[in-house]
Structures are given as structure tokens and as C-alpha cells.
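Protein modeling request. Please complete all fields; requests missing the sequence field cannot be processed.
Requester role: graduate student
Desired output: 3D structure, C-alpha cell encoding
Chains: 1
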Amino acid sequence: PYNSGQTRITPPSLVKYCALFPDEIGELFRLYFDTINASCTLLDPVYHQPERLIGMNPFLFTVVIALASRHYKKRSFHGIAMEFARDAARNALMDAPKTIETCQAFLLLAAHPIPCKRWTEDRSWMFIGIAFSLGKELGLHLAPDGSLPERERLNRTRTWLGCFCIDGSHSVQSGKLPMIARDDYVACTSREWYKSSPSNIAWDIHVCWYVHMLTVMLEYREEISKWQRQEEDVDIVATAVRYDQRLYEICQAWENRFAEHPQSHALSGPVFKGRTDCCRMIAAYMRLVVLSHGFQHGPQIATTRDSHISHQSIVCARTAIQVIIHHLFPTGQLRFAVEVSPSPYSETHGPIETTALVLDSFRCFLCCISAEC
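Delivered output (373 residues):
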């Protein structure tokens, strides 16, 4: 049994089967927070310590260990660890406590899906739905009670913003309606949340940035959906250009916030810079998604090689590719990226696929990009 203070706890099956001792568990948790948590910021390293989680929520404890084991150098047990995570998820559906930690575990499994051979076997969408339903039941979509401890309030908000981001990402990519409305109270009031407390973690600022970008993307999707249902007469090119400009202005405003953030000059600066570069790449990708609608549905005269929308598409495509090649890939941080598919959280596949799809019909523009990448 794992000794936590004066309490002896029967450890999860993963710990017993893989013979994990406390020192090794501590290493795996540190590995998770140093790498994976920077890409998908759901947990607080102070609040979610192994000594607390192993007894409070073995499901989340197992998921963290399983995800970290992929990058553990001392021995290889990632495959079997993910099987234990799958079993823990199955058991959690029947008897796990309805807590924030259970919600977080399902979100992590949605963001880092268990490998499968067929698309139909992917369960990310199911985990997203479970996390959303559980979050609503726990009241995470409401403002946290001021009487709660500070870190618990932050934990509630961070978890719901994680639900919003993963749900919104899946919606933008799959074309399905989001479960969480874009005018969600917590999401719409999160612009300054990353600096609301000294206990906020470094990566909270990137979560707030992504929420802001997603709200605009979901608004754009709503407007396009009305046009597709022929409820409104929309100038598709003008609409794409207008929303592209909005996304650009949001990015410029957040660039200043990133530069002013204390972590940009701290010891964790390289990781913080990597996350900021990832934001730049995702922003270029989102803008390209918006502009691609203008290409696809706009009149031919408005999408010539010298048109504004053509120029902006080339700029965005080039930016996404350059950031990946010159900034993200050399750091080695891409191996820790979120893998949820389909999602803009996927830091390599999404931008490249969208760029390829848009440019496949406009091969005459490729020289403009290849000459500068």
C-alpha cells in the first residue's frame, strides 16, 4: 500500500501491476506537469499532487501516469498503462464519484485519445460528452462560490474552460454543433482570468487566449450556417475578410499580453515561448479556415490571385508552416502536443491539412509560399 501521511491507501491496479514506487510516481507526475500539462492546461501541480490523487481519485491518477509514461525514459510501459486507463474509464462510468477530478480525467482522455485502428473506434467524442455532462452537473459553468478555497475556485474555472476549448475545437473541425454555447458565462468573462490570482499557473494565459479565439470562430460558424440554410443573404467573401480581421486584431492584442507576462522572462521562458509560438500557429490556421470559405464559395472575380483574400490566405498558410518548421519543431515540444482529432489543438496535422486543402485548388499560388518558407 502507498503510505500517504498516516493513511495507508490501496493503490490503483496500474501501480501494483507495473510495480511503481513512490519515487517513480513522483517522477512521472513531474514529467507530466513539465511537458503535457503545458500543451493541455487542466491540472495545477500544487493542487493535483500524487499523494492527494491516489486516494481521492484513482481514475485521474491512473490517466496522468499513463500519459506521462509515453515520455518516460527509464522503462517502457505506456501500452499497458493506457489499457489500465481505458479500464479505469469504463469503471468510472459505473461507479466513479461525480467530482471535478473525474471530469478532468475524461477531458484528458479526449485530448490524448487511446490509439485505435479505425476512425469508428475513436471515443474522443464520447469522453467530451461525458466531461461536459459531468461539468454541468457539478455547476462548473457557473461562477465559483467565493467561499471556496482559492485553488479550488481556479480549478473549477480551469476545468470548465478546458471543456469549452475541447468541445469548441471539435465543433469547428467536425461541423457539429457545440455542446457549450459561445456566449457561455465563464468563457465570456475569462479574458482577465489568467491574472485573477497569484495562484494562477503560467499556462492559464494561453487558455484564455484560445477561449477568446474560439468564441469568434463559433460566432463565424453561426453566421455561415445561416447562410448555408439560406436564412440570410450573406456576402461570403466580405464576411470571411471581416472575421479574419477580427482574429488578427485579437492576436495582436494578446501578443502584447504574452510579452508582458512574467513567465515570458522566467526560468520556464523557453516553454512559455513554445506555447506562444503554438498560439501563433493556431491563429494562422484559424484565419486560414475562415478565409477558405471565401475561396470555396465566393465569386471567381473576388478570389483572383491579386485579391485581398488570396493575399491573406497565402500569408496565413506561410505563417503556419514557418512557425512549425522554424520554431516548434526545433524545440522538440511537438511530441507533447495534444492529439485530439479533429481539433485545432492538434498542432501539426490541422494546419498542414487545411493548408493543403485550400491550396490544392490554387496550385498557381504555391510559388508565393514555397519561395519564402
